[in-house]
Amino acid sequence: MNKKNIFIYLLLALPLLLTSCLKDQEDLFTDSASARSAKYLSNVERVLTSAEYGWVLNYFPDREQSYGGYAYTMQFDEENVKVCFELADDVTQSITSTYSLTNEGGPVLAFDTYNDYMHYFATPTGSSGAGGYQAYDGDFIFIVMNISEDENTITLKGNRSGNVMYMHKLTQSVEDYQSEMAEFKSNLVFDQASGVIDGQAYHLSIAADDRYMTISPVVLEGEEAVEDPIEAPFCFDIDGFTFYEPITIAGKEVKVFKYDETEGTFTAQEDNSVVFSALLTTSIVTNNIGESIILSNNAKTLTYEFNLADKFTYTSDVDWITVSASGKVVTINVAQNTGVARTGHVTAEVDGQTAVITINQVPLSGLFETLELYVAYSNISEAARPYFDACKALSDSESENIGVMAFVDYNAENGYGLFFTSGSYGGLLGLKVTPVSGTEIKFTYEGDRNYSSGTWYYNHGYYVLIDYLESTSFILSADNEDNPSYMILTDSKDSTKSFKLTTAPVSNPFDN
Amino acid sequence: MKKNILYLLPFVLMGLVLTSCSKDEIKSESVITADSYKQNQFDKWLEANFRNPYNIDFKYRYEEIESDMDYYTVPAEFWQSVKMAHLVKYLCVETYNEVAGIEFTRAHFPKMFFLDGTWHFRNNGTYELGTAEGGKKICLMGINYLDQVLDGSYNPRFGLADGLNFYYIKTIHHEFTHILNQTQDFPTSFREVTPSSYVSDSQFSEPYVSVYLQRGFITAYAQTNYNEDFAEMMSMYVTNTPEWWEAQMQAADTMYEADQDQIQTGRALIEQKLDIVRAYMSDTWGVDLDELRDCVLRRQGNVTSGLVDLTDITVD
């Protein structure tokens, strides 16, 4: 090494001497990192506990959000948090547990003792698949990412899944929010919708239980699809839904949709040109009204309430039924019937689809055959008992107990009759019911229906009862003509002979 | 010579670089602040019954940092945690106070308990019941099943005391034995009783899982290694009745034919081990094993007959 080299090294070392002491260097922060963290946490606590009604957390378990999102509503006090959960059997039932705010690599909100609701998606089991040893990959520890300026929104990040979730300040109680949301969901009568955005038609399919939506561009034959279909997880709100993260439809970024109940439309809050309208199907009507209605002869006004009810056109094919719809309510008026049973139809129509609702107006004598009516010995008048006693006497002589005795439409194959069991045997003694008037019927025996043992019982003693039933006609009365809990049959020739039959099943009729 | 000075020069200059211009004074208060939550009544009870007398941190609140990241776990439920705290206090801490004196407990009993709500489920459907780390921290699992264990509905195979022992309490005695062993090792003679019979990872496979008694081990898990063997001997002995022990000895009273090297019956082997455990506990720690067992059983009996209030968290 020569001298020259050494000088070069010395020269190189020179900059090291050129350091200086910044006498005026001040701490960037006035407090220590730990103190600032503590201050931040106490601010989080203040914001959490100061919300009068609490918060709703739109919770997405699983790092792929495969199960969609669910609403937790929670109210914090200094020690505990009260939680209601969208998937609870009773959404207004709350469970209380503790929480903590700590610093674990960031400000952390932890639900730190077990809560059946709060830890639902995180609780592992020994079974395999979803909900097994990895549970539903749900979080109960969250990093507090941000509190909005107005303190109405808190951004959380799930510690396990990494999912970003939002808490919004409530303006109604944790219970009310849940029950209102439940009502919103039950009012959502359709699961398909469509929209035209910037000239391009889209189809929206709502998988309400699985919590994802599929949005696909409608492709005309011979054309190329403009965009790929999007499958996006969402959670319900009290008046619409929110995607887990913004999605792009026709170049527009959207996330939160609000529902217009009268129009049946979902409109994006970020861009009101993104609108989806309900695709109406007549099953909406039949799901809510049914396909068949049986009524008594009395005049009756029936009302049915369901979302989008007035989007359908309703017509009646008879003059004694009138039907109208307004808003969420369909009203069907049925006039009094003075004659025999009659049938009319209400037709609901939308976009060329139709659904038919059949309305039958039947007097008691018509209603009788449609019910299952059970015999009980205590409901038989003294004078009529001997006919039934004959049945019991025969069964007794065989050391058998009559387990049940009822007037029923047994099944499609065997039809109507007096059904009974005796010991391990039984039979269906066929009866034909003929209306004499609106309130009077007559029985005709039609033999044993496919029950060979029924014939035996008929021949050996039950004929006493059947002969009696055939020998007269019966006047009917009931407690409630539309929906009777019993009917009383009174012998038209001897009013001391009567028996009351109940729609509630009776076993061991001779002991009851 | 001149050359040498030149060589030295850089080092001298280096010294100049290493000066500091800090005039900071050390603050009297720590920059670290403790994380906090508002202490509830149970926190206060734990302070009075675990922290103050024994310096034991009974962590019933879930802390991610204490949890086992290999498993999906959830917090323990509050009131079942309260019951577990009472059980640890009454069945373990106070047992050792009674038999060996409070100073013994203070010096050696594990310093941290951490509670998990469920078991540690593995991906094959099996699960772990409890672990201990370095003799200082015991993780008690399945706290959310405690109510069911206490009313006998969790596993019909177990009576109440057996269930408590199997799922929770035996584990604590077992881990505590490890701590004692780490403080003062047991005689090497223990390792010589069944020196070549340990099967480490096959203890729960056939045939070992069913012939451990004849092979000279009190449980299948005892076949893992001599440390586990010792801890199993001790914890099974003190948490079970003399009748149970004798039944095990009778079942062990044959030779394990498949092993040509085994020249004694399982019973003889287990009893040799027991003698060493007994001598170790008495010579090293001044604890009479039978006195310890009597105390554990008496206290278990008080718990199972409902004499111990497990939910009282009032602080005097």
Core attributes:
heterodimer, A: 512 residues, alpha+beta, Lipocalin, Immunoglobulin-like, 4 domains, nine-stranded antiparallel β-sheet, eight-stranded antiparallel barrel, 7 helices, 32 strands, 40% strand, B: 316 residues, alpha/beta, Collagenase (Catalytic Domain), 2 domains, four-stranded mixed β-sheet, 11 helices, 6% strand
In short:
Helix content of chain A is 18%, strand content 40%. In chain A, strand 10 and strand 11 form a beta hairpin. Chain A is an alpha+beta fold and 512 residues long.
Q: Mind explaining what this structure looks like?
A:
The complex is a heterodimer of chains A (about 500) and B (about 325). In chain A, β28 and β29 (about 440-450) form a beta hairpin. With about 500 residues, chain A is α+β, with helices and mostly antiparallel strands. Chain A has four domains: about 35-175, Beta Barrel (Lipocalin); about 190-280; about 285-360, Sandwich (Immunoglobulin-like), CATH 2.60.40; about 365-510, no CATH class. In chain A, about 20% of the residues lie in helices and about 40% in strands. Chain B is an alpha/beta fold. Chain B has two domains: about 40-185, Collagenase (Catalytic Domain), CATH 3.40.390.70; about 185-310, Collagenase (Catalytic Domain) (3-Layer(aba) Sandwich). Chain B is built from eleven helices and six strands. In chain B, a hairpin with a 5-residue loop joins β3 (about 120) and β4. In chain B, α3 runs antiparallel to α11 and α8 packs across α11 (about 290-305). The model of chain B has no long low-confidence stretch (mean pLDDT about 85). The interface between A and B is large, with 50 and 44 residues.
